[in-house]
Amino acid sequence: MLTFAPRHTVGSFLLLVMCSTLFHPVENAALQTTGGENTLYDVTGIGGRPLMVKAYPAVENYQSDLFEVYAEPYTYDLRAQVAIAVLVGEEESEVKGEIMFIQQHPPIGPVLIRGNITGLPPGRHGFHIHQSGDLRQGCGKLGGHFNPYLLPHGAPTDPLRHAGDLGNVDAGDDGVAQIRIVDALTSLSGGPRGVVGRAVVVTTDADDLGRGGVADSVVDGQSGRALACGVIAYVR
């Protein structure tokens, strides 16, 4: 299991205040719903050790039940975490944006994703987290979608999906897309689902969510080339 050194960023109290002020009540309700799905806290393990468990239900003819189990002593910072990705346009693209990630209860709690992207052509555009965060060769050299469990591409609500599959963003006639997502699969505290250090990418075309019926559909949703990208980094 991949681990990262604990990050002592902004205090938990401040992050909880940020969550309550930055997110609409509807989003907070979604957080509570998503946070309660397939996550168990303070489960008693062998010797009375408290466990945190994140479960992934079986998918018929594809995978059995999967469980992530975290036991003391924890190698992850359990305090609330915040990260941000500053998107910069590829080559001549004027697309830019800032995307904030907040996880109140790492490593198994859901992640709140909110921000905006400007300069987009009107319409829908794929929005994903890619494997690599090395931008030295541009947005097109970041590897595939972040996919720690080697699953096919899908929609954010599909039982089988890449961890980096965040669906589409919708840009209005003014070229602005507002991002409001609650995601239960990614994490900010390292581990197999950790996204800090990886890159967010917005693409030229809409993501078909794996339903296009061709080979590329279950790889990248036929969402085209990258318009802009940015590395997900901890906020200090």
TrEMBL record:
EC number: 1.15.1.1
EC supergroup of this enzyme: oxidoreductase
Position of the signal peptide: 1-28
Enzymatic reactions: 2 superoxide + 2 H(+) = H2O2 + O2
GO terms, molecular function: copper ion binding; superoxide dismutase activity
Domain of life according to the entry: Eukaryota
The protein's name: superoxide dismutase
